[in-house]
Amino acid sequence: MTDIFARTRELFHMPEGVIYLDGNSLGPLPKAAAARVAETIESEWGNELIRGWNSAGWMEMPSRVGDRIARLIGAAPGSVVTGDTLSIKVYQALASALDLRPDRKVVISDSGNFPTDLYMAQGLLRSLGKGHELKVVAPEEVEEAIDETVAAIMLTEVDYRTGRLHDMKALTAKAHAAGALAIWDLAHSAGAIPVDLAGARADFAVGCTYKYLNGGPGAPAFIYVSPEHGEKAVPALSGWLGHEAPFAFDPDYRPAAGVERMRVGTPPIIALAALDAALNAWDGIGMDEVRTRSIELSERFLAEVETRCPQLQLASPRDPLQRGSQVSFRFENGYAAMQALIARGVIGDFRAPDIMRFGFTPLYLGMDEVLAAVEIIEAVMAGRHWDRPEYRKRSKVT
Ligand SMILES: *Cc1c(COP(=O)(O)O)cnc(C)c1O
Question: Domain 3-30+286-392 has what CATH class?
Answer without folding.
Answer: alpha beta
